[in-house]
Amino acid sequence: MNPNPTHSNRFQIFVWTLFDFANTSFSVMIVAVGYSLYFKEIVAGGSGRGDLLWGIAVSISMLLTALIAPVLGAAADFSSRRKRFLFGFTIVSIVSTALLSFVDAGMVATGMILFILANVGFEGGLVFYDAFLPNLTNERSYGRVSGYGFAMGYIGSLITLLIAMPLYKLGFGAENLANVKLSFAIAAGIFLLFSAPLFIFLRDHKTKFEYKVSYIKAGIQRVSETIGHLKNYRNVSRFLLAFFIYNDGILTVISFASIFATQTLHFSLQEVLVLFAIVQASGIVGSLFFGIITDKIGAKRTIAINLVIWILVVAGAYFVQTKEMFYMIGAVAGSSMGASQAASRSLMAQLTPKEREAEFFGFFDGLCGKASAVVGTFLFGLISYITGDQRISLLTIGLFFVAGLILLERVSDKEHIRNTAT
Question: CA triplet 173, 167, 21: central angle to 5 degrees?
Answer without folding.
Answer: 135
